[in-house]
């Protein structure tokens, strides 16, 4: 299995409740290394661009409102099979469907306010990392 990088966001519902450290403990406990991290607040334009694949979905406006409602923590995670592994660590999109011990089961408030984002494919990871980090901000 190859070492991969994936892109992660700790979302506004989680930063508001001071959960960054607890979520990072779950990430690191799963064997993923946080090789880049910064706390930012997105503009609407940044959120719209990041989520442009969801533009036609009914929840798009709500999603952009939510992701610009407070600080977020952007991360690059590195490890064996990091993309699939982090999706497992996060659990299902809706916390009601998420497995025990996953970030969303432990912390998410709802399907919309679900505490974290993780890339869903190698192409998405490449795009999302490039949109949010310079190469010299990632230290493996
Ligand atoms: P993410 O992209 O954040 O890692 O989550 P995901 O792949 O599990 O979910 P996705 O289908 O890509 O949806 C992106 C985000 O939009 C919000 N959402 N709300 N109210 C709804 O029905 C609904 N569906 C999706 C969630 O915040 C989801 O993570
Ligand atoms: Mg997604």
UniProtKB/TrEMBL annotation:
GO biological process, one term: UTP biosynthetic process
Keyword Cytoplasm (UniProt): yes
UniProt domain Nucleoside diphosphate kinase-like: residue ranges: 3-140
Gene3D superfamilies in the cross-refs: Nucleoside diphosphate kinase-like domain
GO MF entry, a single one: ATP binding
Enzyme Commission code(s) on record: 2.7.4.6
Cofactor(s), names only, from the UniProt record: Mg(2+)
Enzyme class: transferase
Reactions catalysed, as given in the entry: a ribonucleoside 5'-diphosphate + ATP = a ribonucleoside 5'-triphosphate + ADP; a 2'-deoxyribonucleoside 5'-diphosphate + ATP = a 2'-deoxyribonucleoside 5'-triphosphate + ADP
Keyword Magnesium attached: yes
Keywords on record: ATP-binding, Cytoplasm, Kinase, Magnesium, Metal-binding, Nucleotide metabolism, Nucleotide-binding, Phosphoprotein, Transferase
Main location: cytoplasm
UniProt-listed InterPro entries: NDK-like_dom, NDK-like_dom_sf, Nucleoside_diP_kinase, Nucleoside_diP_kinase_AS
GO cellular component assignments: cytoplasm
UniProt: ATP binding residues: 11, 59, 87, 93, 104, 114
PROSITE patterns in alphabetical order: NDPK, NDPK_LIKE
Active site: 117 (pros-phosphohistidine intermediate)
PANTHER family named among the record's database cross-references: NUCLEOSIDE DIPHOSPHATE KINASE, NUCLEOSIDE DIPHOSPHATE KINASE DDB_G0292928-RELATED
Role this protein plays: Major role in the synthesis of nucleoside triphosphates other than ATP. The ATP gamma phosphate is transferred to the NDP beta phosphate via a ping-pong mechanism, using a phosphorylated active-site intermediate.
Family statement: Belongs to the NDK family.
Subunit structure: Homotetramer.
Protein name, as recorded: Nucleoside diphosphate kinase
Organism field: Hyphomicrobium denitrificans (strain ATCC 51888 / DSM 1869 / NCIMB 11706 / TK 0415)
